[in-house]
Design a protein that fits this description.
Blueprint: H1 2-12, H2 17-45, H3 47-64, H4 101-115, H5 144-157, H6 161-184, H7 189-209, H8 215-238, H9 245-266, H10 269-286, H11 293-311, H12 317-337, H13 344-368, E1 370-371, E2 374-375, H14 379-397, H15 403-424, H16 431-452, H17 455-476, H18 479-498, H19 512-530, H20 541-550, H21 554-573, E3 576-577, E4 587-588, H22 592-617, H23 624-627, H24 629-642, H25 652-673, H26 678-710, H27 716-719, H28 721-741, H29 752-762, H30 764-781, H31 797-817, H32 835-857, H33 864-868, H34 871-895, H35 898-922, H36 925-945, H37 953-962
Helix pairs in contact: 1-2, 1-6, 1-8, 2-5, 7-8, 8-9, 8-10, 9-10, 10-12, 11-12, 11-13, 12-13, 12-14, 13-14, 14-15, 15-16, 17-18, 17-19, 18-19, 19-21, 21-22, 22-24, 22-25, 24-26, 26-28, 26-29, 28-29, 28-30, 28-31, 30-31, 30-32, 31-32, 32-34, 34-35, 34-36, 35-36
């Protein structure tokens, strides 16, 4: 192929060296691909022989190691001394040696083995020696780079290396000579083409004469000669107009026939491939515009009949593939560029004849090619005519009424007819081919349905047909019908999903969208139910590979069926009523928010129903949707909130009550019925935790509903809504699940009997973090607008909610630390460091309260620069910090806690620095005087009431731990 490509590139590139090398590279790639395909086929066909050789070697090794060749098992024979005597005839005497019984049994076993060795295998020797012989490993597919290098090396150094290398060098030299002659104008083009053609004829003649003495050398020369003659005729006719196209056409046919005859004579597939490749290339090289359809298709039919004739005597798969791809490739190219309506009859006849030829060729190949499990099947020739032929047939008659449907039925009749005829022969070797033919025929019958009916009804029919095929395969213990059934259901599902659109129907449930989805779901659910049974794998390698995949198909099949079931109910929930007049648009039966909630409720009710089936029919996978029902609640809430809906809107509130009740009931049954495994426990815990988090957003959503009705979106009431939801839920978890952590008997009923830690710790930790972050943000950045109520310091929604948040956090910490077994990760709550963020929150809350008071009562604008630049605000901050420091230091002095006193002293020092750096220059006279006097008096009070406690390590540590 490298030589043919080099020659083709040389001629097409006007005899240039660059075209020579490019053509050789392309030809090398094509040859590598063909060689790789042939090697894979050879490895597959010789796998059985390799196993037999390995087992035979094991038998030979066993025989060589047998006791008859050893003396370690024979009793010692007493040494007999003899004296020389005259030579007499030897008389056999019985040996007095004693042989161990186990050695006798081994020799008898070996004698039995030798007796049975006349059969193909013989009986395997006893022991573990033969049983331990490993089976030959499957050959690994090399990478494309390694395969390319190996292919080039195999072509160059395999067979007669010198001849192949010489041909390459010779072609390069000829290209240089032709290029030099053309550049110098030494010879006319007729002479140059004649020399090249005569050289090809010489190669052909020399190769034919040496065919018996040097077969490899002869075939290489003949292949090169045929290629040179082809390309010489092509160049003379196409580029230089030295030979009429009709004459070149006839001559190329003659060259093809000659190459075919030589290939049959010498039994060379490579030579036949070269001849037919050139023969099929003739229409492409010399065909002009393709207007002579009769001549083109007549010529192609003759070549295909020749390939069919060869297929009766030779199983040359590569030749068959070359003819198939060339025939349908040329037909497709001609149909795309030169077809006209008047060519319909000729094209139809040629297509029918070509499909028949290659289907018969596939049957002949199967009959003549034995394999490991029956005769080998060429899948390309078996499926290729169906795919390529049907595509061309649809292109011919697809625009006619039901033309594609009738085309599918025609191909179905062909393949089913061939399968029926082959079945009557009752040849077990053709069983795989018969099943493939039957599958293709059924596939075309199945394909005829959508070509004649609507897509949604087609998907429903295919889904049921696929479930039926899977059931038949289960009953007959055959894997191919089951595989076909699964594939058909996959296609049906994709077809239905691909045609999803608005469900415009006047009648509820009796519409294609709903019925189609339900039928697709029933097919998958039935398949999942059938797949529960234990399936005995087949004997072939493909059957065993399919069985491994089918062993896990039950779960994906059920989940797909459940999804299709829910999609059907979703289509019904979003159904549109047809418009009364054409100028109007269809009208939704339900509002958008109700559609979302109905879809959510459909999932929950369906999951509960399948959970009941799972309990009663011992079908564990049917309970899976119920385990993740909280996900449906979350999706429903997010979708509803995105559309502007709320939980308390009517009739959404009633749907939410039903949905939450169904979810709680499924949680209860899942905890009661599911087998306790790490996976089910993790899923159950996640469901309970996610339910708690959902409660936070539901409470906040209900509060937002009230804010929306009162038009309070721009006030502090809206800002504390989410924080209020978290505070309520965390307080409820602390009061409800906290006692369960301490082992209180009344608080250990479901769900606290198994999920107390999930509620009191796992679900509460993110809520506590959210409360802390939200309280700090609101305390610092909320202006505290309490409209329509007046602002009251410390009794406004911001300050009250921040105080409640801090109190709930402390209450939750106390409940967790009081548990009989402190949850993992809760040790941080018992350390001193936990007081740092709590103290920071309190400090932020105090400063925020003063800023809001100054904003509302003193009229200071709520802007950072304005607040920090106001003399009254700065004076109040200085006094506030001093009061906080005084409080800390007094408490520390009474408790003798040195670290707390130092914290207060640090804050007092920061106040003094603020007075000297900020207030001394930024504030006015009166404010500055008040700030300095107030801070100074408070510092005197600190010195009197709270001097530094003594440094007693043990007491300080003890009191700090108590604190």
């Amino acid at each position: 192929m490298a030589i043919v490509g080099a020659l083709l590139g040389w001629v097409l590139g006007s005899f240039s060296e660059t075209a020579l090398f490019l053509g050789g590279a392309v030809g090398l790639c094509i040859g590598w691909a063909l060689r790789r395909a042939m090697r894979i086929e050879i490895v597959r066909e010789t796998a059985v022989l390799s196993a037999e050789v390995a087992l035979l070697r094991a038998h030979v090794n066993e025989l060589m190691d047998a006791p008859r060749y050893r003396t370690d098992g024979v009793a010692d024979v007493p040494e007999v001394r003899t004296t020389p005597r005259s030579i007499e005839p030897l008389v056999a005497e019985p040996s007095t040696a004693t042989v161990a019984p186990e050695v006798v049994s081994q020799r008898e076993a070996l004698t039995d083995f030798d007796t049975a060795a006349g059969s193909r295998w013989g009986s395997p020797p006893s022991g573990d020696r033969v049983a331990s012989v490993p089976a030959p490993a499957e050959p690994r597919e090399p990478g494309w780079l390694a395969s390319g290098v190996a292919a080039a090396r195999g072509w160059l150094f395999g067979g007669n290396t010198i001849v192949r290398l010489g041909l390459v060098i010779l072609f390069v030299g000829l290209s240089f000579l032709a290029s030099y002659a053309a550049a110098a104008g030494l010879f006319p083009i007729e002479f140059r083409l004649a020399v090249v053609g005569l050289f090809g004829i010489a190669l052909l003649g020399i190769g034919f004469r040496t065919r018996t003495k040097r077969p490899d050398f002869a075939l290489a020369l003949q292949g090169g000669g045929v290629a040179i003659i082809y390309l010489t005729l092509f160049g003379a006719a196409r580029f230089y107009d030295l030979v009429p196209l009709s004459a070149a056409f006839v001559l190329m046919i003659a060259v093809c026939a000659l190459g075919c005859a030589l290939a049959l004579l010498q039994r060379s597939q490579a030579l036949a491939v070269t001849a037919f490749a050139g023969g099929f290339a003739v229409p492409l090289l010399l065909g002009g515009e393709g207007g002579n359809a009769l001549g083109l298709f007549g010529y192609g039919t003759i070549l295909n009949l020749a390939i069919l004739f060869i297929a009766r005597a030779r199983t040359w798969r590569v030749l068959n593939l070359v003819g198939f791809f060339a025939t349908f490739g040329i037909a497709s190219l001609w149909g795309a560029t030169a077809y006209r309506p008047e060519h319909f009859l000729i094209a139809q006849i040629f297509l029918i004849v070509s499909v028949l030829i290659y289907v018969v060729t596939a049957v002949l190949y199967t009959r003549a090619t034995p394999g490991k499990f029956g005769n080998a099947v060429d899948t390309t020739l078996l499926f290729g005519p169906a795919l390529a032929g049907f595509g061309l047939e649809v292109a011919l008659i697809g625009d006619r009424p039901f033309g594609s449907a009738f085309a599918a039925l025609g191909f179905a009749a062909l393949y089913l007819g061939v399968s029926l005829v082959a079945r009557r022969r009752q040849d077990q070797g053709l069983r795989v081919m018969n099943e493939a033919m039957l599958a293709i025929g059924i596939g075309f019958v199945t394909m005829a349905i959508p070509l004649a009916l609507g897509a949604r009804w087609t998907s429903a029919a295919w889904a049921l047909e696929g479930a039926g095929a899977f059931w038949v395969g289960m009953r007959q213990a055959r894997w191919m019908p089951r595989l076909f059934g699964l594939a058909l259901q996959v296609v049906a599902t994709l077809l239905y999903l691909g045609t999803l659109d608005d469900n415009v129907a006047a009648l509820p449930f009796a519409n294609p969208a709903f019925v189609g989805a339900i039928l697709v779901a029933l097919g998958w659910l039935a398949t999942a139910w059938f797949a529960k049974e234990t399936i005995v794998p087949g004997e072939t390698r493909l059957a065993r590979a399919y069985a491994r995949g089918e062993a896990v198909i039950a779960t994906p099949a059920f989940l797909t069926g459940f999804a299709a079931w829910w999609i059907g109910w979703l289509m019904e929930a979003t159904r549109l009523y047809p418009a009364v007049e054409r100028s109007l648009s269809p009208v939704s039966v339900f509002s958008t928010n109700v559609q979302i909630l109905l879809a959510m409720l459909a999932y929950l009710v369906s999951a509960a129903a399948f959970q009941t089936i799972a309990r009663r029919r011992d079908w564990p996978v049917a309970a899976w949707p119920a385990r993740v029902s909280v996900g449906a609640l979350w999706i429903g809430f997010v979708a509803q909130a995105d559309r502007g809906g709320t939980v308390l809107s009517s009739p959404g509130c009633f749907l939410w009550i039903v949905a939450l009740a169904v979810h709680g009931w499924m949680l209860f049954r899942s905890d009661r019925d599911d087998v306790a495994t790490p996976g089910t426990r993790a899923v159950a815990s996640a469901s309970h935790v996610a339910g708690v988090w959902l409660a936070v957003v539901l409470i906040a959503d209900m509060l937002w509903y009230g804010i929306d009705r009162a038009a309070l979106w721009s006030t502090a009431w809206n800002e504390v809504t989410f924080l209020a939801g978290g505070v309520v839920v965390l307080a409820g978890l602390t009061l409800w699940a906290g006692p369960a952590l301490r082992g209180v008997r009344a608080a250990t009923r479901w769900p606290l009997d198994r999920h107390a830690v999930d509620y009191a710790w796992t679900a509460a930790v993110p809520i506590a973090l959210g409360i802390f972050s939200g309280a700090a943000a609101i305390a610092l950045f909320s202006s505290g607008d309490t409209a329509p109520l007046p602002f009251v310091p410390l009794l406004n929604p911001v300050d009250v909610m921040v105080a409640l948040a801090a109190g709930v956090l402390l209450l939750w910490r106390r409940a967790v630390l009081a548990a009989d077994a402190v949850p993992a990760g809760a040790a941080l709550l018992a350390s001193k460091r936990i007081w740092l963020p709590i103290a920071a929150l309190g400090f932020a809350a105090a400063n925020g309260a003063w800023l809001r008071t100054a904003h509302h009562l003193a009229g200071v604008e709520w802007e950072a620069d304005t607040l920090l630049g106001n003399a009254l605000v700065e004076t109040g901050i200085a006094i506030l910090w001093t009061v906080i420091a005084l409080t800390l230091m007094v408490v520390a002095h009474r408790r003798a806690t040195r670290s707390l006193w130092l914290a207060g002293a640090s804050l007092l020092g920061a106040t003094v620095v603020k007075l000297l750096v900020v207030d001394l220059y930024a504030t006015g006279g009166g404010a500055r005087i008040i700030a300095f006097i107030a801070v100074g008096m408070l510092m005197l009070l600190v010195g009197y009431l709270a001097p530094l406690p003594p440094k007693v390590a043990s007491d300080d540590t003890k009191r700090g731990a108590v604190a």
